[in-house]
Amino acid sequence: MAAKVMAETEEQSRIRFQVELEFVQCLANPNYIHFLAQRGYLKEQTFVNYLRYLQYWREPEYARYLKYPMCLHFLELLQHEAFRRECVSAQVCKFMDDQAILLWQHYTRRRTRTLQPPDTPAPPAPPAAQQGPPRQQS
């Protein structure tokens, strides 16, 4: 008996897109990855297959919707069994979190410097404050 394959409606497709977008972006949080590892999700083959399926987010037409591009790096790392095994450790999670924060801080400072025009003149100094009303001469 052949199973009927129902075509996905436009609404279902939109909801699936939103759910997968939210999930992929959650992978930018090392604490969430640690949570998944502690609950055993990273050991389940069906979940590993789902992570492999989500690789399509690396394509530019999908990646442009991501607010946290760090999630793509973690998605790539989660393709490796050794990394998935290590994610159970709280120390590994803390290290990943610290490194992500350092990268974000460095990136923000560097981006700010890069976006400033090189010949930006210094802002003018504020006028000197007067010491009370001007004196009248008699």
Percent of sequence in beta strands? under 5%
Distance between the termini: 113 Å
Q: Which structural class fits the helix and strand makeup?
A: mainly alpha
The whole-number mean of residue pLDDT values reads: 83
What is the general shape? flat
GO biological process, one term: regulation of DNA-templated transcription
Subunit structure: Component of the Mediator complex.
Protein name: Mediator of RNA polymerase II transcription subunit 31
Subcellular location: Nucleus
Structure description:
The protein has about 140 residues and is mostly helical. It has 7 helices and no strands. Helix 2 (about 30-40) packs antiparallel against helix 7. The chain is flat and about 65 Å long. The model has no long low-confidence stretch (mean pLDDT about 85). This is Mediator of RNA polymerase II transcription subunit 31. Pfam families: Med31 (PF05669). It is found in: Nucleus. One of its GO terms (molecular function) is transcription coregulator activity.
